[in-house]
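Inverse folding, one chain.
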């Protein structure tokens, strides 16, 4: 995969319909993922002659990830629906690991933080790989992009 500005995400928006206010930690994770994603990503649409950079709006409706994508000159504008039911369990595991990690930091349990963080990272990687597989029909993405998109999916879902 050749990385170029044409195969990248330039802007990402999240639409949270009917979602209660998110926690401080989830908001932090969301903002960090957006920042990192915009600064470094690989995102290619598997259709002929579709070039970016891309603007993406993500939302979830009834366990379906809705990705509305356009490019900068608006010559491409399409919505993709990706069922994410298979990620529900891993999102719940990830949420529990994040909660334990955040609580450990607040409580100053330094000894447990590394073990909890390693577990959280493992769950995050697993979720990213599943998301990457779910998206492979329409998109090519690298591992870091998949991780950041998983974080955003988590922040919309939880």
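Residues assigned per position:
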């Amino acid at each position: 995969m050749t990385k170029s500005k044409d195969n990248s995400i330039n802007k990402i928006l999240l639409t949270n319909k009917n979602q209660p206010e998110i926690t401080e930690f989830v908001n932090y994770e969301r903002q960090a993922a957006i920042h990192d994603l915009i600064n470094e990503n690989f995102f290619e649409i598997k259709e002929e002659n579709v070039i970016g950079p891309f603007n993406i709006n993500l939302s979830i409706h009834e366990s379906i990830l809705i990705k509305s994508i356009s490019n900068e000159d608006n010559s491409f504008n399409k919505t993709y629906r990706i069922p994410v039911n298979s990620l529900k369990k891993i999102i719940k595991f990830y949420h529990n690991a994040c909660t334990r990690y955040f609580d450990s930091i607040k409580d100053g349990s330094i000894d447990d933080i590394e073990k909890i963080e390693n577990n959280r990272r493992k769950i995050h990687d697993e979720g990213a790989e599943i998301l990457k597989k779910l998206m492979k029909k329409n998109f090519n993405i690298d591992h870091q992009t998949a991780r950041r998109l998983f974080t955003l999916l988590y922040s919309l879902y939880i």
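The chain has a mean pLDDT of 89. Residues 5-157 form one domain.
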